[in-house]
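Internal tracking record. Fields below are filled automatically when a chain is submitted to the structure queue. Please do not edit lines marked as system-generated. If the sequence contains nonstandard residues, flag them in the REMARKS field before resubmitting.
Queue: standard
Priority: normal
Entity type: single polypeptide chain
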Amino acid sequence: MGINNVNEQSSAWGAVFRKKPVFFMTVKETEAFFNGKMRRNMELWEDTCTLSSNNTYRRPNTTYEVYDRDKGSAFLDMGFLIKDETSSLKGNLSDENDVDFYNFSIPFMNFQRNYFGIEAYIDMPEGCDYDLTLYDEYGNQVGKAEWDGKGRKTLTIPNWDMQTNKYCIKVENGNGEEISPDDYYKISFHVTENKEHEKTDVIREAFGELHNAYSRKDKNWREYLDKYNAVLRETEQNYIKEMERLHQKQFESLPEEKKYKGGRTVDELLQDMAEGKDLSDAEREYVKIFANLKDFEKAQQKAELKNDFSEDFVKELEQRGLSRDDIAGMRVRIESNGTVTVDGIANDAVREQVQELVEKYSDKMYQYYIGIADSAGNLPGGVYQYATDVQEVRRYLKGVTGENISLENLYLTPDGKIGGLPDKAADLLNKTKDNAKTEQVRDALKNIIGNIRISGGLGIPDFTSQFQFSNGAFSVADSGFAVDVGALDGRLTPQSSGNMYSDMYKYQFKKVL
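SYSTEM-GENERATED OUTPUT FOLLOWS
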């Protein structure tokens, strides 16, 4: 077949991939394949064993257990479900107020988004009505599943561009009715033809021209880069317009009594929410549509910490014969190894009882901290993963050994095991199989060891979760970081220099996943 120009070459290249996406196996999938654990109709189980479990929206690189009594467990991420449409993730809501989050990336090359679409499904227990909401990597709400006439809800992941490929699914009880933790939902995916490919044709073609010009060392390749950057800028504006159209459509589809007609902004309503004030049904629907995921969840966490958690904490205090006044002015510190310190209470006996109660809820308080503290919430993705991995690992190692293990002294052996650990921890982490908690900690340790090597002497992003109790309720006291997280991000984030990617236009949206 003769190809006479760049456009023809781009079209010929694209034609190879138009019938079916090309998927590449992840490391976990490769391990499962060679161990004979890959099969059809697999069930991934939601994560309930890690420090943040699936209660927080920012959960990169999470894998889920596929249990097999005969061959042993496999551990796969959500992206696998796009590759294998016969398999699904199985989860449950523990009560009517529980919310589950699942992060995933599109597992095929960006230009193939021009040819293929992806649908997400949620099958629910009989009589249940759960909401499945989709957010992009910038925190924008970009889809809400609707009943499809087949007893389930469906949404289509938007194909507004070819740059955005990370998403977060949020599952919550839609009608507020009582539910049973024994009722399970299932999430699955289906790859379809992209019926709106004309929205991204120009992106694919411009990138193809740039790639080919750069590959053949065309002296004018930067002209193609300028053209591609112009397309990206236009696409960014189109993305905003598509999102605004979606939000307006969602708003107009609401029942009349749930359409917000007030004049307050989303930020003002979120501030009320964060202060623990009740929003009307119309106000709440409004912020659910238009608010950024990060801002909404931060306001929600602040409200829960101030109201629900503080009230439950005080009730347990009262059962111990103590009162709210006994802990006025109290300060709480939860170190990365899980050690709890309580200050600001003069009576030793009271302080000991309060410390026991804080230790009981320390994991929950940690979740509030990372959801509210700006120093944690504003971390770039790679540093956030690093910092939360440190919290997970330090708690685990302290629980197993009773000691504080220096993470800087750990290393990977040639056969991929964790070296430098005390014998008890080494046996657990290097020999234990088919255990979801061990698998997650092992992955976190490998990530930490790699980051320490890459970042040199910049230090580990350790932090202490701090709280204060005043005016009858808890609030977060942001402790920040001792290390320079900006410099750390510069080391951990791959940088392009002197090639076609180094001057490529970057969206102005700030990533939150």
